TrEMBL record:
Cofactor(s) for this UniProt protein: a divalent metal cation
InterPro entries according to UniProt: HARBI1_dom (IPR027806)
Domain of life: Eukaryota
Domain DDE Tnp4, first and last residues per copy: 2-119
Keyword presence, Metal-binding: yes
Name of the protein in question: DDE Tnp4 domain-containing protein
Molecular-function GO terms, alphabetical: metal ion binding
Keywords from the UniProt entry: Metal-binding
PANTHER family linked: THAP DOMAIN PROTEIN (PTHR23080)
Record carries keyword Methyltransferase: no
Species the sequence originates in: Cyphomyrmex costatus
Length: 129
């Protein structure tokens, strides 16, 4: 895990989170961000040559074109690793239940420590993936 944003309420948009976290300043030309369909901030990253990889969707078609299908399969294989990493963070007991009210002010720090600890665990992605 190399970046963790601050926590935001569910009503805060992806755009607002990207802008408030200065994520565009934490990326470099050639970086690639994996995102879901609703992540509509490509215009913020295009000027700094950071690509946003979003899975294609059919839009009324019955099948994706060959190159798009191949790209999506590769993207999905990488996405599996991210889902596994998210699952790994949830193995810490403190993150398995609702945070007690007296820990809420420390919520970000608690999550941060759990993510950092994940970096010390056995690799979940092989070097050739």
């Amino acid at each position: 895990i190399s970046y963790i944003s601050s926590a935001y309420a569910g009503s805060v948009s992806d755009r607002a989170i990207v802008e408030r976290s200065n994520l565009t300043k934490k990326t470099e030309p050639g970086d690639s961000i994996m995102a879901d369909r609703g992540f509509t901030v490509q215009d913020l990253f295009a000027p700094i040559y950071v690509s946003i990889n979003i899975p294609a969707f059919l839009k009324g078609k019955t099948q994706l074109p060959g190159l798009t299908l191949l790209k999506d399969r590769k993207l999905a294989s990488k996405r599996v690793h991210i889902e596994r990493l998210i699952g790994l963070t949830k193995t810490y007991k403190i993150l398995k239940t609702d945070l007690p009210v007296y820990f809420v002010p420390l919520g970000r720090e608690i999550f941060y420590v759990c993510c950092i600890l994940c970096n010390f665990r056995e690799n979940i992605v092989s070097a050739d993936a």
